[in-house]
Design the sequence.
């Protein structure tokens, strides 16, 4: 069931950095009262929202099922905003990920203490966070954020939960091939002219944004329920045009998407397969941008120098927004590198299935998927109690 209104009102909001006078915010939700006292440092679950990296904020697609389960066992739940593309790129998003985790580890406790002193009469729940026990969670494109945190952030997270995450295999036609037929959740193809301001080169003139709320046309509209915020359809538009990677990298000339497309459609290429595709396409990624592609940073065999935390991957087999093969591919790479990884494929489920009306009934029963995912985090965070 969703978290209670009281639980959500207990949140505290902090600015973890400013970029050109724009605050980047995170929401801190305390552990349930009685599960983590002021004398203890609470483990932390840091959540990255989805939205194709183009839309959303710290409240978008909020995973109530996970918040409720993790705070109930003594975890602090933190939801983070990050800059969105365009005009920002994966490099700016990576900077935000690193800065957010650094803030949580190094600055949050003193700010929590200051706020308690400043609002002594507000009876704020006293707690501190343990910088050595941080797990990261991401849904959809937030999964990519979680993977980047595992590779580049300090402190490194000690566990990852990814719900149908992007970033397990981004060198596929899903990202670089133009689409001429319906491909995304049965929805119509988009007219690029309606999004001219968000297309290169015009998108370079956009203002930096890290908070882009979900909005829909009202019931009185000719298109009731249709997205009213154009950013809600940008990721789909970029996938449709086969240029998503150019916007992600922030580089359009030369276009990596075009280079990948040309190589992939060459009559001389090897028969398709993960290994042959990787050999063909991986060298085309510019060396200075390879750090944005998690799959390219995982060694081909066990290595003492490679650090990647235990990982729990969940993906619906019918996902058309981010293919389940991405999580399959990442799981295979991580296992080969000696990482503890669990992959749960949910038969017949589409993207965002955990937000569906039947989700709690289908997956929220005792010992079900939701409990298993939260229990994975609890185990690696050393959280008391059980999910």
Sequence:
């Amino acid at each position: 069931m969703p978290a209670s209104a009281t639980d959500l009102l207990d949140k505290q909001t902090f600015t973890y950095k400013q970029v050109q006078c724009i605050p980047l915010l995170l929401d801190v939700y305390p552990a349930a009262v009685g599960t983590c006292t002021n004398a203890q440092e609470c483990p932390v679950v840091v959540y990255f929202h989805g939205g194709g990296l183009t839309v959303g904020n710290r409240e978008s697609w909020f995973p109530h099922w996970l918040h409720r389960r993790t705070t109930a066992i003594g975890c602090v739940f933190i939801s983070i905003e990050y800059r969105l593309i365009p005009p920002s790129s994966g490099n700016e998003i990576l900077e935000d990920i690193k800065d957010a985790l650094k803030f949580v580890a190094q600055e949050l406790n003193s700010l929590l203490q200051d706020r308690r002193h400043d609002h002594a009469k507000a009876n704020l729940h006293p707690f501190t966070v343990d910088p050595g026990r941080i797990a990261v969670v991401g849904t959809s494109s937030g999964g990519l954020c979680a993977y980047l945190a595992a590779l580049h952030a300090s402190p490194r997270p000690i566990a990852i939960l990814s719900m149908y995450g992007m970033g397990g295999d981004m060198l596929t036609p899903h990202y670089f091939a133009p689409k001429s037929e319906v491909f995304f959740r049965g929805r119509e193809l988009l007219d690029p002219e309606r999004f001219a301001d968000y297309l290169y080169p015009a998108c370079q003139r956009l203002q930096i944004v890290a908070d882009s709320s979900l909005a829909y046309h009202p019931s009185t509209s000719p298109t009731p329920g249709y997205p009213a915020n154009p950013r809600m359809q940008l990721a789909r538009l970029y996938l449709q045009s086969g240029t998503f990677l150019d916007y992600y990298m922030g580089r359009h000339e030369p276009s990596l998407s075009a280079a990948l497309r040309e190589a992939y459609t060459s009559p001389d290429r090897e028969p398709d397969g993960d290994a042959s595709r990787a050999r063909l396409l991986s060298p085309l990624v510019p060396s200075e941008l390879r750090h944005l592609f998690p799959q390219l940073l995982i060694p081909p065999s066990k290595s003492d120098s490679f650090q990647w935390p235990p990982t729990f991957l969940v993906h619906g087999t019918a996902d058309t927004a981010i293919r389940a093969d991405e999580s399959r591919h990442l799981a295979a790479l991580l296992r080969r590198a000696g990482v503890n990884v669990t992959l749960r494929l949910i038969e017949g489920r589409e993207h965002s299935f955990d937000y569906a009306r039947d989700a709690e009934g289908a997956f929220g029963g005792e010992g079900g998927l939701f409990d298993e995912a939260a229990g994975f985090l609890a185990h690696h965070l050393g959280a008391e109690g059980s999910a």
Q: What stands out?
A: The CA atoms of residues 63 and 355 lie 8 Å apart. Strands lie at 12-19, 22-29, 41-48, 76-80, 128-139, 159-163, 311-316, 341-346.
